[in-house]
Amino acid sequence: MPDRRAYPSLNLTVSQVRTSDIEVVVRNDSKTTRIAPVLSGQDNSITTQLGIYLQSVYGAKAYHVRYCAGTGPWLEAGIRPNTKGIVITKHTPGTVYSVRVRSAGLSTQYGPWSATTSLMAT
Fold first, then answer.
1. Is residue 3 classed as helix, strand or coil in its secondary structure?
2. Measuring CA to CA, how many Å separate 112 from each of 33, 88, 95, 97?
3. What is the 3-state secondary structure (H, E, C) of 68-95?
4. What is the rounded end-to-end Cα distance, in angstroms, of the chain?
5. 102 strand-pairing partners
6. Please, are residues 96 and 107 in contact by the beta-carbon 8 Å criterion?
């Protein structure tokens, strides 16, 4: 088993580390500032569907989407893998829906919610 003691003064090249049995542990104590996604567009051109577009957040692995009808409770629209093609389905024409999104990624934690945007289903 390799020696797990820390040797901060060692000056090894990447190839030396790769060919050795040294276990490298990189500690990052810095806090990453999480920012909210920016909803950059919306589309209600298809009946009963709402499409939203957002600017990607650096480091995000996915996006958590919620919506609500009027002032009703927030409902889950799922976790989407990217910012393209986010479509929320089965909406009632003439009803105004609000949508919000947050990023997930650099860790198991979520970022803050985006500003809420509203759109009427057609």
1. coil
2. 10, 20, 26, 20
3. EECCCCCEEEEEECCCCCEEECCCCCCC
4. 65
5. 64
6. no
Mean pLDDT of 75-88: 91
Tokens encoding 34: 């999480």
Which domains, and CATH codes, for the chain?
38-120 (2.60.40.10)
Strand partners, 120: 96
Q: Does the pTM exceed 0.85?
A: no
Q: Which two tokens stand for residue 85?
A: 């093609």
C-alpha angle 47/48/51, rounded to 5°? 90
Determine the average pLDDT of the residues in 89-101. 95
